[in-house]
Design goal:
Helices cover 54% and strands 12% of the residues. It has 84 residues and is mainly α. A hairpin with a 2-residue loop joins strand 1 and strand 2.
Length: 84
């Protein structure tokens, strides 16, 4: 079940269901807590990954709170990354 949210001129799809989103959230929490946001991938990439999971329809309030916390923990993208 794919979910689409409007994100500017493009639509963002979520390949997750509420059942599989938990694993994706746990993975993001592990990566981002170990300074993964500063790794090979840009901040914009990690923000997009969190937003992709957030686009999943039917997330529990706990899942939504975990995703909000992840978004808050990410530093804002630098202007040069936004065009990537």
């Amino acid at each position: 079940m794919k979910t689409t949210i409007k994100k500017g001129p493009q639509d963002m799809e979520s390949p997750y269901t509420p059942l599989t989103a938990g694993d994706a959230i746990s993975h993001l929490e592990r990566i981002l807590s170990s300074d993964g946001a500063g790794s090979l991938f840009s901040r914009t990439y990690w923000r997009a990954r969190v937003q992709q999971v957030s686009a999943t329809q039917g997330l529990t309030p706990q899942q939504q709170a975990r995703l909000a916390k992840l978004l808050e923990s990410l530093p804002p993208p630098v202007p040069s990354e936004e065009s990537c």
